[in-house]
Amino acid sequence: MKLPSSLKERRHYIVLKKTDESKIKNILMQYLGILNFAKAGPKIINLDNKTLISIERDFVNAAKTALALSKIDVIKVTGTINKAKS
User: Fold this and answer.
1) pLDDT value of residue 86
2) Neighbours of 55 (CB within 10 A)
Protein backbone atom coordinates (compact mmCIF):
# COMPACT_ATOMS: atom_id res chain seq x y z
CA MET A 1 0.00 0.00 0.00
CA LYS A 2 1.37 3.38 -1.00
CA LEU A 3 1.48 6.35 1.36
CA PRO A 4 -0.41 9.46 0.35
CA SER A 5 1.86 12.38 -0.52
CA SER A 6 0.78 14.29 2.58
CA LEU A 7 2.31 11.58 4.81
CA LYS A 8 5.65 11.24 3.02
CA GLU A 9 8.84 12.61 4.53
CA ARG A 10 9.97 15.94 3.16
CA ARG A 11 13.73 15.70 2.68
CA HIS A 12 16.29 18.29 1.71
CA TYR A 13 19.84 17.77 0.51
CA ILE A 14 22.89 19.49 1.99
CA VAL A 15 25.86 19.63 -0.40
CA LEU A 16 29.36 19.52 1.13
CA LYS A 17 32.89 19.11 -0.08
CA LYS A 18 34.12 15.49 0.03
CA THR A 19 34.05 14.51 3.73
CA ASP A 20 34.31 11.27 5.67
CA GLU A 21 30.93 9.67 6.43
CA SER A 22 31.74 8.69 10.02
CA LYS A 23 32.94 12.23 10.81
CA ILE A 24 29.64 13.71 9.60
CA LYS A 25 27.57 11.21 11.60
CA ASN A 26 29.57 11.90 14.77
CA ILE A 27 29.16 15.67 14.38
CA LEU A 28 25.40 15.40 13.85
CA MET A 29 25.02 12.92 16.71
CA GLN A 30 26.87 15.19 19.15
CA TYR A 31 24.96 18.31 18.18
CA LEU A 32 21.44 16.89 17.71
CA GLY A 33 21.49 14.17 20.33
CA ILE A 34 20.27 10.61 19.87
CA LEU A 35 16.53 11.33 19.68
CA ASN A 36 16.73 14.19 17.18
CA PHE A 37 19.35 12.32 15.16
CA ALA A 38 16.85 9.49 14.78
CA LYS A 39 14.04 11.90 13.86
CA ALA A 40 16.24 13.70 11.29
CA GLY A 41 17.25 10.41 9.68
CA PRO A 42 20.36 11.65 7.86
CA LYS A 43 21.48 9.59 4.88
CA ILE A 44 24.93 10.27 3.46
CA ILE A 45 25.54 9.96 -0.28
CA ASN A 46 29.13 10.07 -1.57
CA LEU A 47 29.66 11.35 -5.10
CA ASP A 48 32.89 11.91 -7.03
CA ASN A 49 33.96 15.22 -5.55
CA LYS A 50 31.22 16.05 -3.04
CA THR A 51 29.12 14.58 -0.27
CA LEU A 52 25.34 14.91 0.04
CA ILE A 53 23.36 14.63 3.25
CA SER A 54 19.71 13.77 2.80
CA ILE A 55 17.91 14.99 5.92
CA GLU A 56 14.39 15.70 7.13
CA ARG A 57 13.32 19.24 6.25
CA ASP A 58 12.76 20.37 9.86
CA PHE A 59 16.39 19.62 10.84
CA VAL A 60 18.22 21.38 7.99
CA ASN A 61 19.11 24.48 10.00
CA ALA A 62 20.32 22.44 12.98
CA ALA A 63 22.48 20.28 10.71
CA LYS A 64 23.95 23.34 8.97
CA THR A 65 24.77 24.85 12.37
CA ALA A 66 26.46 21.65 13.55
CA LEU A 67 28.56 21.49 10.39
CA ALA A 68 29.50 25.17 10.60
CA LEU A 69 30.64 24.78 14.22
CA SER A 70 32.85 21.90 13.08
CA LYS A 71 34.36 24.03 10.30
CA ILE A 72 32.86 21.99 7.46
CA ASP A 73 31.79 24.20 4.56
CA VAL A 74 28.21 23.84 3.30
CA ILE A 75 28.07 24.57 -0.42
CA LYS A 76 24.27 24.73 -0.78
CA VAL A 77 20.94 23.25 0.31
CA THR A 78 18.42 22.03 -2.24
CA GLY A 79 15.06 20.31 -2.25
CA THR A 80 15.82 17.81 -5.02
CA ILE A 81 18.67 15.40 -5.58
CA ASN A 82 19.06 16.40 -9.24
CA LYS A 83 19.80 20.01 -8.30
CA ALA A 84 22.22 18.80 -5.65
CA LYS A 85 24.17 16.71 -8.15
CA SER A 86 24.61 19.54 -10.64
Assistant:
1) 79
2) 24
Confidence of residue 10 (pLDDT cuts 50, 70, 90): confident
Q: Is residue 6 part of a domain?
A: no
Report the domain count for the chain.
1
Q: Are 25 and 44 in contact (CB under 8 A)?
A: yes
Residue 50 lies in a domain: yes
Domain extent at residue 69:
17-85
Supply the pLDDT for residue 83. Answer: 87
